[in-house]
């Protein structure tokens, strides 16, 4: 049976066509050509008689009202998410216990038959088994390097991980999400670590604040809650264990005496753990934010959202890679759509006069609803 | 202030990077190379010792439980959507009245100041004003060709519209959505027409049925409700007005006598109105569906979803083109991300051993939540 997931906005593209015959758009093209509107044909509303444009103002005012109701809808969805996060908590606790080895699953716990590669001897014929991250054998507790493996599997996360972070991330035993219902709306990611030689904190936290209110000046850009702010935490590194700093040595020559000495300087080091020290910006929305800082924050918000939304709820599927394969499949479908699209516009170039400016129209924003 | 909309899964890509330095992945690459797993590094879980793989089975069983709860969450979100559709109904009624001219908005209704192009004389200097679809002037009622303009502006819809459909679509005065809460979950699109010379139906309907249940055999592919079925309606065309049929004339030559006669044959014609006559498939899920029919249905479901989800709630913004511009902006951002991604992988080719197979990982499916 053919199906279309209503969640799958990536497929809501104009690539698929029902009718293969091209549409000459004669009538429309005529209007367009006549007035020389080379941009969006949609801009044509601007040339309607004033009496009609006045009525469009009324529709736009109604739309502002509609957006306000939409914001309430999204707030209710967020409330539902808070409620369901509680419902998942028992599952998450069990997962953590199995991963750390605190609890050994019994036969009923392991009654899962949909993945044959989890039965019998290891693939590749190595009976002992193997892990790329360190020694494992039949006596290894839990699922070793579970979260580190996820970090390495997911590009968005792996891009933050430096080789010197890996020994630290081997101690990551869980990521929990706490939802904040309102005042302000937000969520906290809690990275739980086993006792280790790097820092004393049992948990590192990253706080995200969201806003679920249309912009007064630009109400129609509203698409649901957005992350607007984040805050990290202080990591209590043990001496000489801070991977976010490095010492560089520099030779200094005395200008007049000619003597040379070596000075040590501590500088910032690339590390995943900089994730807990994001750039701080002023609360004043009108203050300009440096473009580089802006880019770091955009990326940070994206990562925080992805961890909350994809990684934590589906961790085992990122560990096995299944979730990645699905994302790839989706991407391939998207590319096929794009190909189809560009072929179409080539073929129709001579007859479809209004098409070029519209071919850019693409997938709707992914909307939480 | 930098922001990241949590709805915007299109941006949840691996294109943005926090650390610009490349990661050599030495440790990971070693494991990968050693065993010759050239595909997903994630496949490495298959070579773990059996005792550990057994625990992964336990996690997967937990994940099945998690997916079941997720399905309940989505059902509750759908319920919320039903509730909110009621809340929007007053706004939709007013919109329809302004569009048809049934009600003339008063000054308070038109108190909207965020679009200067709606005030003063028409752009292009034509004081009278102009519409590409037909004569308009100061005395024209309502907002003429409102829905036809939307159909022409949105590629996904415009691709279905043939020149002979346009005179019919000029009579489209509203699209309503009725939500069906459950048994089965679904929605109905109602296309409302003013009295016209083409058909007698005041309303044409398209019914969509959804399923909100994980597949027993493939539970992890569940991403929320999906459209699984649709049904159109019979259009009562007036004589010789059916745009979905055309008459073709064919010369037939008698084989032995050599006489020639002309026969007329009625065949299917490309038309938007074929949207109300989708291919019917068997209810038996295991029965094979023809690939062409499958493609038509996938496209149909996508269009139905798009009309419900984007067009109806934001109609005026598709009329003015603003909604299209936003979708384009998003698409451009996406392309920029892709560019960045491919540059990165080129640069790092020599050092990043495990990267190639992972660079394909892409945006998460857009998830309703």
TrEMBL record, chains A, B:
Keywords: Nucleus. Residues 17-26, 359-369 have a biased composition (Polar residues). Coiled coil: none annotated. Residues 1-35, 324-369 are annotated as: Disordered. Residues 324-349 have a biased composition (Acidic residues). Gene3D superfamilies: 1.20.5.1500, Nucleosome assembly protein. It is found in: Nucleus. Pfam families: NAP (PF00956). Residues 1-16 have a biased composition (Low complexity). GO terms for biological process: nucleosome assembly. Its main location: nucleus. One of its GO terms (cellular component) is nucleus. Belongs to the nucleosome assembly protein (NAP) family. This is Nucleosome assembly protein 1-like 4. It comes from Lygus hesperus (Western plant bug).
């Amino acid at each position: 049976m053919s199906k279309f997931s209503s969640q799958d906005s990536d497929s809501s593209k104009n690539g698929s066509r029902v009718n293969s015959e091209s549409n000459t758009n004669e009538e429309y093209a005529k209007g367009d050509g006549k007035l020389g509107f080379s941009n969006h044909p949609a801009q044509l509303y601007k040339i309607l008689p004033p009496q009609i444009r006045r009525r469009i103002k009324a529709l736009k005012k109604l739309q502002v009202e509609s957006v306000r109701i939409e914001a309430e809808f999204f707030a209710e969805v967020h409330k539902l998410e808070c409620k369901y996060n509680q419902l998942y908590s028992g599952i998450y606790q069990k997962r953590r216990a199995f991963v750390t080895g605190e609890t050994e699953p019994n036969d009923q716990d392991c009654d899962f038959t949909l993945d044959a590669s989890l039965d019998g001897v290891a693939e590749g014929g190595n009976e002992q088994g193997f892990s790329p991250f360190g020694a494992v054998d039949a006596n290894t507790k839990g699922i070793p390097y579970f979260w580190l493996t996820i970090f390495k599997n997911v590009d968005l996360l792996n891009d933050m991980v430096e080789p010197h972070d890996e020994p630290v991330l081997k101690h990551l035993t869980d990521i929990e999400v706490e939802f904040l219902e309102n005042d302000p709306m937000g969520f906290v990611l809690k990275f739980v670590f086993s006792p280790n030689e790097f820092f004393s904190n049992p948990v590192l936290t990253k706080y995200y604040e969201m806003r679920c209110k249309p912009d007064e000046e630009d109400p129609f850009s509203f698409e649901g809650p957005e992350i607007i702010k984040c805050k990290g935490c202080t990591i209590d590194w043990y001496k000489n264990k801070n991977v976010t700093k490095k010492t560089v040595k520099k030779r200094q020559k005395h200008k007049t005496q000619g003597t040379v000495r070596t000075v040590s300087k501590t500088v910032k080091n690339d590390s995943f753990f900089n994730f807990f020290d994001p750039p701080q910006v002023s609360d004043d929305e009108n203050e300009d934010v440096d473009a580089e800082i802006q880019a770091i924050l955009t990326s940070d918000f994206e990562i925080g959202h992805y961890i909350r939304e994809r990684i934590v709820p589906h961790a085992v599927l990122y560990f096995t890679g299944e979730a990645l394969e699905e994302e790839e499949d989706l991407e391939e479908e998207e590319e096929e759509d794009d190909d189809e699209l560009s072929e179409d516009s080539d073929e129709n170039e001579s007859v479809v006069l209004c098409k070029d400016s519209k071919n850019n129209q693409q997938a709707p924003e992914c909307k939480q609803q």
